[in-house]
Design goal:
- The structure holds two protein chains of two kinds.
- By secondary structure, chain A is an all-beta fold.
- Chain A has no helices and five strands.
- A three-stranded antiparallel β-sheet of chain A has the order 1-2-5, with no helix packed on it.
- Chain A starts with 10 loop residues before the first strand and ends in a 26-residue tail after the last strand.
- In chain B, helix 6 runs antiparallel to helix 9, helix 11 packs across helix 14 and helix 12 packs antiparallel against helix 13.
- The longest helix of chain B is centred in the C-terminal third of the chain and has 31 residues.
- Chain B folds into two domains: 72 residues, no CATH class; 221 residues, Up-down Bundle (Heme Oxygenase, Chain A), CATH 1.20.910.10.
- By secondary structure, chain B is mostly helical.
- Chain B is 65% helix and 0% strand.
- Chain B is built from 14 helices and no strands.
- Classes of the chains: A mainly beta, B mainly alpha.
- Bound molecules: FE2/S2 (inorganic) cluster and fe (ii) ion (2 copies).
- The site of one fe (ii) ion (FE2) has 5 residues of chain B, from helix 13.
- Chain B: InterPro entries: Haem_Oase-like_multi-hlx (IPR016084).
- Chain B: This is Iron-containing redox enzyme family protein.
- Chain B: Pfam families: Haem_oxygenas_2.
- Chain A: This is Iron-binding zinc finger CDGSH type domain-containing protein.
- Chain A: Pfam families: zf-CDGSH (PF09360).
Chain lengths: 70, 318
């Protein structure tokens, strides 16, 4: 294996899942509330069904896939 | 912690030998699955925190390593034959590993202890479950920590990101096993390391032994990481159910907080594990692809067997 650089994006969109965000210190949710970030990577909900917005709580897994997004 | 109670002839021999290193008698064959399981659990524990009433040098005692080898071989054979009976064995292409893990988890139809806790479990059942779970959660993530030096660059970095979070991101108060210990205390249970090993049902010991076996052997690094992925991928939603059940029974506070933390943390960890650890490991070491799935299956299957045993003992489900 070469000792070159690896791709290591700060933002990763998980197919049918959350947005992973690395190295953030705070996140503002849709209500304007600012949440302090305490872990190296957080998962932000993209399906809008999480019970703890703005964080993903895994609920996207029980939502049928391919439902049209509005 | 102190040496566990023997459960048969082999564990009796082992406990005596650990307490008194001078003993030279030959290890007898185990006389039950329970005996075999507690013996292997005890031998593995020598590589974690050990026992106050055993000699620390026992970890690398050749006579004991021989016993451990035989028990591990028997366990690995059992786990692999369960996997092949379930139709496993084919190696996915490296790029398909995260998807294959997801499919395996999606197909898992084992009974859910979290469902029972959420809706029906009474207080005694929940306390019993927490005592059983304490065998693992008081050393949470420790088996995977052994794998770090055995991984290529990308998988190693991702495992460290995950483990850093498991170990509290540098804050001892947020270390997951410590959160669980505080939860145990808050619900009136003992919180010291290994407190309830003597109460562990055999299925629980075997589940713990499988995790330690995979973590302790470099050869099994792929299986260890697949096991970790399946664990993380089946944690967020059940943890939320645990919170709901604990709240329903008025067991709010630190124990509920432990599970609450896992709703959020494992919604992140599952992606780190499936994609950044297992996915890149399969790309860098394609010969690990089959074992990644074997490990994931083993995690799901051991949990299903444990859940079946617990629900059966309570006279529910099945
Ligand atoms: S993306 Fe996971 S709960 Fe919405
Ligand atoms: Fe954890
Ligand atoms: Fe986790």
């Amino acid at each position: 294996m070469s000792a070159g650089d690896f791709d290591h994006p700060d933002v990763v969109l998980v197919p049918h899942g959350p947005m992973l965000l690395r190295g953030a210190e705070s996140v503002q949710d849709t209500d304007g509330t600012v949440h302090r970030v305490e872990r190296p990577v957080v998962a932000l909900c993209r399906c809008e069904k999480s019970s703890r917005m703005p964080w993903c709580d895994g609920t996207h897994k029980v939502i049928p896939r391919g439902a049209p997004r509005t | 912690m102190r040496l566990p109670k023997p459960r048969g002839v082999l564990s009796e021999w082992l406990v005596a030998r650990l307490a008194e290193p001078g003993l030279t008698s030959v290890a007898p064959a185990p006389d039950s699955w329970d005996d075999e399981s507690i013996a292997l659990w005890t031998l593995h524990e020598l590589s974690f925190r050990g026992f106050e009433d055993a000699d620390d040098r026992a970890e690398w005692d050749p006579g004991l390593l021989a016993v451990r080898h035989d028990l591990e071989e028997a366990l690995e054979d059992r786990l692999r034959s369960r996997w092949s009976e379930a139709g496993g064995g084919a190696a996915p292409g490296a790029a398909d590993v995260p998807g294959a893990l997801e499919a395996l988890v999606a197909e898992d139809d084992g009974p859910s202890l979290a469902d029972h806790v959420r809706r029906h479990a009474d207080r005694d059942q929940v306390l019993e479950l927490l005592r059983q779970r304490s065998v693992y959660h008081l050393k949470e993530s420790d088996p995977s920590a052994f794998v770090v030096p055995r991984l290529p660059v990308r998988a190693k970095a991702a495992l460290m990101a995950l483990q850093f979070d498991e170990y509290g991101d540098g804050d001892p108060n947020r270390l997951h096993s410590h959160l669980f210990a505080r939860g145990l205390e808050a619900v009136g249970l003992r919180a010291e390391y290994g407190a309830y090993v003597d109460d562990a049902v055999t299925e629980n010991l075997e589940m713990n032994n499988a995790g330690s076996l995979l973590g302790l052997h470099r050869r099994l690094r792929g299986a260890a990481m697949g096991h970790l992925a399946a664990f993380e991928m089946t944690s967020s939603l059940p943890s939320r159910k645990m919170v709901q059940g604990l709240d329903r029974l008025g067991l709010t506070g630190p124990m509920s907080h432990y599970y609450d933390e896992h709703v959020e943390a494992d919604a992140v960890h599952e992606h780190l594990a499936a994609r950044d650890i297992c996915g890149t490991l399969a790309e860098d070491e394609p010969d690990q692809a089959a074992d990644l799935l074997f490990g994931a299956f083993t995690c799901l299957d051991a949990e299903a067997r444990f859940a079946t045993a617990m629900l059966g003992a309570w006279g529910v489900g099945g």
